[in-house]
Write a structure and sequence with these properties.
Helix content: 25-40%
Strand order of the largest sheet: 3-2-1-4-5
Largest sheet: 5 strands, antiparallel
Number of strands: 5
CATH class of the largest domain: Mainly Beta
Strand content: 35-45%
CATH architecture of the largest domain: Beta Barrel
Number of helices: 3
Distance between the termini: 108 Å
Length: 156
């Protein structure tokens, strides 16, 4: 092989490697910015999941990337928001759509309560399901007393 053939082979390889390094650094920088923003605004809340869905959305609304569709994982949930204004405490129930990654999406089941780490409309972590209140035991004390009395009569 001659030198000109090597040049035609090595230049495209060098361009591809350079493009890969540029893209890797750019995406790494975007991820670091997102992590800083997420860590600034994250808070732990309890939500009640109404439903979940997978949606294909464009990467950007404008430009050539509007034709590129990406899977996003979404959860529709109810969230209690409390705020204090001039000493008055107000609590409101909101239904919101949250986005999350695939790993956290698989942990969630509809019609259940979860403790999650939120930042805006993004769910970063799903903790174990929120502890549910203990259900009342079947029967009241009177009914239990009657059952015990009936058992004593049968023994006699």
């Amino acid at each position: 092989m001659t030198i000109s053939t090597w040049i035609w082979i090595l230049i495209p390889i060098a361009l591809l490697i350079g493009l890969y390094i540029y893209a890797f650094r750019r995406f790494q920088k975007q991820k670091e910015q997102f992590d800083v923003q997420y860590n600034t605004y994250k808070e732990t809340k309890e939500i009640f999941v109404l439903g979940k869905k997978i949606v294909r959305q464009p990467v950007r609304e404008e430009g050539p990337f509007r034709f590129l569709k990406v899977k996003t994982y979404q959860v529709v949930a109810r969230l209690m928001i409390s705020q204090t204004i001039k000493g008055i405490n107000r609590s409101m129930m909101h239904t919101m759509t949250f986005t999350l990654d695939k790993k956290e999406y698989q942990k969630i089941e509809p019609n259940r309560k979860y403790r999650v780490e939120l930042a805006g409309n993004y769910i970063g972590k799903v903790f174990a399901p929120a502890p549910e209140k203990k259900e009342k035991k079947k029967g009241t004390e009177k009914e239990k007393g009657k059952e015990q009395a009936q058992e004593k009569k049968k023994k006699k």
